[in-house]
Specification:
Shape: elongated
CATH class of the largest domain: Mainly Beta
Number of helices: 10
Structural class: alpha+beta
Helix content: 25-40%
Strand content: 35-45%
Length: about 425
């Protein structure tokens, strides 16, 4: 018993001595050293409470040290104490602080708390002092997007990408919201397909479209006129891209044609898209084509924005009587400016229901081997005139072990108004 008591007293004395030493050390540390310790506690040890104590000690030594005050406000934000964070930020605002990081931290707090008007006020004030700040420009675009002011958000993102074209977060957001930007668009495309052996005649397809962009999503009506196998045909299509939330939006499509063999009689499709963290996006959906029989295809894709690049991998799975047919495609785009200016490369195998060759999916032909590779280029002029051109080469097994070389060229023009 006596031995236990002595051990306890010894341990207590050692703890007391250690605490006194630490206190004495803290008392001799300057504000920069305390700030460094606070950051270590926050980022390395995830001990926000200890970091707050160290930050407050540092501010007692240097009350006008803006970086430490901003850090303290961020700590309260991360600890889910918005009122405490606001008190810190409001004190800085009363001092007419113009620091960029202050406006970013304060604006982010209000954005995360869904106080969009207050967040916009703070960010605009910061941009008045730092008009080229990419972080503030991106935050403003996020606030405008959250407020469903999509056209303004799109304008802000284009301004940001002009300053910083490698900004992955801005690239992701501008592509996510472009279908929600209000306005009208008309377009025309011409597609030419040449076959070495499979068919004697070249194919020609002209498409005319009208798009209406609304705050809830885009709606597109398209009419396609085709000459295939020496015969003419017409197809009507309706597509929509409704926005469900900040993270999710959809593709919905349907089409009709009474031109047997030229187009499918009916077509439908639906996909759910998700904008994921770290500039990833994902999709799952289906496509259905009605010829003499229905062809059902299920699709999934994953995409990633990295600086100026967009990478995408997609598959189509077509269940058959005996097995499942696979189609794969990989796409890389290099964006030169906004969402409508890029070079693209695609490599894949199999036939996709998105191609002008969709009527070749009848019977068992979709189970034959097909390799494709292509290039595309999109260019915008004054944001309202959109030009596109693509060229795709196919090596097609149209009969078992009989192959054909085919060329597909498409040019297009769209006008926004």
């Amino acid at each position: 018993m006596k031995s236990t008591l002595i051990s306890f007293l010894t341990l207590a004395m050692l703890c007391s001595i250690q605490l006194n030493v630490l206190f004495a050390q803290d008392g001799t540390l300057n504000s920069d050293e305390l700030f460094l310790r606070a950051r270590t506690e926050a980022f390395d040890n995830k001990n926000y409470k200890a970091a707050v104590g160290l930050a407050k000690q540092a501010l007692q030594k240097s009350p006008d040290y803006t970086d430490i005050s901003v850090f303290l406000g961020r700590l309260y934000t991360w600890m889910d104490q918005p009122d405490s964070a606001r008190m810190v930020f409001k004190q800085l605002e009363l001092k007419n602080t113009t620091d960029e990081d202050f406006h970013l931290a304060f604006g982010s707090l209000e954005y995360w708390e869904d106080q969009n008007e207050e967040a916009l006020r703070i960010v605009n004030h910061g941009l008045s002092s730092h008009p080229q700040s990419t972080d503030l420009l991106l935050l403003k675009a996020k606030v405008l997007n959250a407020s469903k002011r999509y056209a303004e958000a799109n304008e802000q993102l284009n301004e940001l990408l002009a300053v910083d074209p490698k900004n992955s977060d801005a690239r992701e957001l501008v592509n996510a919201i472009r279908e929600q930007v209000g306005g009208n668009e008309i377009g025309v495309t011409y597609n030419w397909m040449h076959f070495d052996k499979q068919f004697a005649d070249d194919w020609h397809i002209v498409g005319v479209s009208y798009k209406r962009r609304t705050p809830i999503g885009s709606f597109i009506f398209r009419t396609n006129f085709a000459n295939k196998f020496g015969s003419n045909g017409t197809q009507f299509e309706l597509e929509a891209y409704p926005r469900l939330s900040k993270m999710f939006y959809m593709y919905l499509g349907t089409g009709y044609s009474n031109s047997d063999g030229i187009f499918p009689k009916f077509r439908t499709g639906a996909s759910l898209y998700a904008n994921l963290p770290a500039s990833f996006e994902a999709e799952v959906g289906y496509r259905q084509l009605k010829f003499t029989e229905n062809v059902w295809m299920y699709t999934a894709s994953v995409g990633k924005y990295y600086k100026n690049f967009w990478f995408n991998a997609r598959t189509y799975l077509t269940p058959g009587d005996d097995n499942i047919s696979h189609s794969y495609a990989g796409t890389v785009r290099y964006y030169t400016k906004g969402a409508d200016d890029y070079f693209g490369l695609i490599v894949g195998s199999g036939i996709s229901p998105e191609e002008n060759r969709e009527n070749l999916l009848t019977g068992d032909s979709y189970k034959l081997k097909t390799f494709k590779t292509g290039l595309e280029y999109n260019l915008s002029v004054k944001e309202k005139n959109l030009f596109s051109i693509s060229c795709t080469y196919y090596n097609v097994e149209y009969q078992p072990e009989v192959k054909d070389n085919q060329i597909d060229i498409t040019v297009g023009y769209r006008r926004r108004f």
